[in-house]
Amino acid sequence: MRRLALGGIAAIAIMAGCGGGEREGAPPPPREATTTSPAPRHDPRFVAQCTAGEPTRFASGLSRVRGVAIAVGDTSQMIVVDADAGSVSAIASRVVEGAAPQPIAMPGAEGLFALEAIDGERFVVITRGACPEGHEATHCLAARLLGPDAGVRSEAVIIELPGALRTVRVGASGDAVWIARTSAGPQPELDRIAAGEGSLEVTTRALGDGIDAREQATEILGLAVSGGSWAVLWRHGAAEDATSGVVLSTQLDEHDVEALHEALVLESFQWYAGALSVIAAFEFARPIFVRIGADGEVRGDVRAVPPGEAPPQPFATRRTAAIVGGGERLELEVRDGAGDAIAPRVAIEGAFVADVARRADGFVVAYARRDGGLAIETRDVRCAAASR
């Protein structure tokens, strides 16, 4: 097992001024409520029935909507709408029906990148686009801290990118948002966006200094964060290439993980009982469950997850949701920890852009639909065991 040195750390802190009133070349970043596999790998006998509640309207009469994102905190929910370059609009759950979305300037923004809930009540919104004046790079991310009332709580912080993003994973824990990302040529990098009272601080760490990835494509497979601990599983080279490999990077060191050499996607990935629990999907086989130590070594047996059976802990009751379809025929698909659909899809009637987040024991979908002008609505989705 080869041990690799970690790269250096660069930190930038930007303090807030007075309070004020999707990525190029990469798929939308998976959230906790989503999974990256395009579809289940088998046709299961559905074990549940999912239904959508009545719509709640938060805005109407909008002239343009390019994207929408939703995040749920302990006491509030935030919806962010992407309509115009250079800004987004935020809608807090505490506003009355029909209240005007609050515009938020985002330097260089060309589209929404992520919206994450942190520390129970605040949110971090991130956009992607061109770099603002004064930055040498051409591709940048911009982030701002929002309060539970959709008010801006920080100045924008800028993350310079070495090029167009190829693959991305986003996670949140405590008061921080984490972004694991790759671009063509340079090494993978991990950003930590930590929130203070009125500021955001960005720390960027290079991954895989012991691997020359300039001649190989790199791909982020998974990101797990818990408190200050983090783990990134990433690939260099194509899965079918004998010279490729999957690397586990943590805050301590880096190791090759031979057991995941041919994995296509991680359906589930988290710290549990002192190790990393993983469900990995493959092209021509059922997903496998494996536990990996921080040293990259497999702990216990590697086992397939049979169709129709609950995955091992900690994923036995895990539920994720994904928006599927296109045009104005979007649907929500709820899946188990192995990536298999548990119920027939739920139609999101009239929606042409949508996002989904976990809420309590169900999900909430935010979407835009045409109704005279454009309207922003949400629906709660609940799943119950199917009758036999």
TrEMBL record:
Q: PROSITE patterns in the record, alphabetically? A: PROKAR_LIPOPROTEIN (PS51257)
The organism's lineage is: Bacteria, Pseudomonadati, Myxococcota, Polyangia, Polyangiales
Q: Where do the record's region annotations for Disordered lie?
A: 19-43
Name the UniProt record assigns to this protein: Lipoprotein
